[in-house]
C-alpha cells in the first residue's frame, strides 16, 4: 500500500486539486479602509478574519527562540491588527450591527499573570500591548516590574498612636504568668512582716509593762530590746514634732510673702467712667485750642461744676 506522500503526488490527486481550484472564485482582498465596506455581513466576515490572524500571530509569538527582531515585528503586527479590528467594529456599529467593543474590553497581563493597565502615552485608542515572549524583551521587562516599596519612616505621632496600656505594663497581670510567680513571694513577705510586727509588739508591751511597774533588770536598766523599742518611739515623736514645726514655718513664710493691696481698687463702672473721660479729653484736645480749654475750666470753677 502506498504511503500518503506517494498518494499526494499521484496524477489523480493532482487533477482533482486543479479542478477544485478552477471552480473557486478569485480570493478577495480585504478593503484597506473599513469605510469602503457597505454590507454588514461582509464587515462581520472581515472582522472574523482579522481575529483569526491575531490568534495565529499570538500563538507564534509565544516562542522565545524566534529572536528579538522577529518578536518585535510580530508584536507590531498584532497591534496593527488590533487597531484594524477596532476600525471594523466601529464600521459594524455604523451599519447597524452589534457593539463588539462593549463585550470584552482589551486586557493585558504582566509576567506574573496579573491584569494591569495597558500603557497608552498618547491617550488615543486602546494603547500599545505586548504579547507572549515580547514581554521579556530588554526595555519591555522594566515596564512590568513593580517598583520596590519604599518603607517610610514613621513619625512620632504614628509611633505614639500605636502605644496602649500594654506598652506601660498595665495588662501584665491578665495573662496569669506574673500572678503565679508573685503569689508565693507575696505570701512569704506577708508572713515575714506579720512575724516582725508580732515581735515588735511583744517587746513594746514588755517595755511598757516594765516602765509602768518601775521594775528594772538585774543590772538596774531595762533590757536591750525594750530600750531599742522605746528609743524608736522617742525618735518617731521627735520626727513628727519637727515635721509639724517645718509646716508651721512654711505657712508663716507664705503669709509674709502674700501681697496685700492697701489701696482701694476701682470697680468695673469706675474704670468705664475713667475711660470715657479720657476719650472726651482726647476729642476736646483735638478739636479745640488751649485757650478755649482754659476759659472752659475757669467757667467750671466759677460755677462750681466738677463734671
UniProtKB/TrEMBL annotation:
User: Is-annotated flag, keyword Metal-binding?
Assistant: no
Similarity comment: family membership: Belongs to the ISY1 family.
Coiled coil regions, renumbered to chain: 230-257
Q: PANTHER family, from UniProt?
A: PRE-MRNA-SPLICING FACTOR ISY1 (PTHR13021)
Q: Which interval of the chain is the signal sequence? A: none
Q: Name one GO biological process term.
A: generation of catalytic spliceosome for second transesterification step
Q: Which organism is it from?
A: Carex littledalei
Key words, A-Z? Coiled coil, Nucleus
Task: Report the GO terms under cellular component.
Answer: nucleus
One Pfam family, short name: Isy1
Provide the protein name: Pre-mRNA-splicing factor ISY1
Amino acid at each position: 500500500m502506498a504511503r500518503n506522500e506517494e498518494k499526494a503526488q499521484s496524477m489523480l490527486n493532482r487533477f482533482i486539486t486543479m479542478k477544485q481550484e478552477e471552480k473557486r472564485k478569485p480570493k478577495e482582498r480585504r478593503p484597506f479602509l473599513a469605510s469602503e465596506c457597505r454590507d454588514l455581513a461582509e464587515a462581520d466576515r472581515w472582522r472574523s478574519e482579522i481575529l483569526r490572524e491575531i490568534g495565529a500571530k499570538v500563538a507564534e509569538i509565544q516562542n522565545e527562540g524566534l529572536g528579538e527582531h522577529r518578536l518585535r515585528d510580530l508584536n507590531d503586527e498584532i497591534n496593527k491588527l488590533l487597531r484594524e479590528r477596532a476600525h471594523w467594529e466601529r464600521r459594524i456599529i455604523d451599519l447597524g450591527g452589534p457593539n463588539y467593543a462593549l463585550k470584552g474590553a482589551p486586557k493585558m497581563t504582566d509576567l506574573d499573570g496579573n491584569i494591569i493597565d495597558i500603557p497608552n502615552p498618547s491617550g488615543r485608542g486602546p494603547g500599545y500591548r505586548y504579547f507572549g515572549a515580547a514581554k521579556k524583551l530588554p526595555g519591555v521587562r522594566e515596564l512590568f516590574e513593580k517598583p520596590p516599596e519604599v518603607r517610610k519612616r514613621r513619625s512620632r505621632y504614628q509611633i505614639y498612636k500605636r502605644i496602649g496600656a500594654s506598652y506601660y505594663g498595665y495588662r501584665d497581670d491578665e495573662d496569669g504568668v506574673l500572678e503565679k510567680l508573685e503569689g508565693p513571694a507575696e505570701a512569704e513577705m506577708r508572713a515575714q512582716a506579720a512575724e516582725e510586727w508580732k515581735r515588735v509588739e511583744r517587746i513594746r508591751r514588755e517595755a511598757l509593762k516594765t516602765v509602768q511597774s518601775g521594775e528594772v533588770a538585774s543590772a538596774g536598766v531595762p533590757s536591750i530590746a525594750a530600750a531599742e523599742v522605746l528609743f524608736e518611739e522617742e525618735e518617731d515623736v521627735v520626727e513628727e514634732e519637727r515635721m509639724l514645726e517645718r509646716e508651721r514655718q512654711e505657712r508663716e513664710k507664705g503669709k509674709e510673702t502674700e501681697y496685700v493691696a492697701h489701696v482701694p481698687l476701682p470697680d468695673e463702672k469706675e474704670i468705664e467712667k475713667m475711660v470715657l473721660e479720657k476719650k472726651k479729653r482726647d476729642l476736646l484736645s483735638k478739636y479745640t485750642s488751649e485757650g478755649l480749654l482754659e476759659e472752659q475750666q475757669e467757667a467750671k470753677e466759677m460755677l462750681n461744676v466738677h463734671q
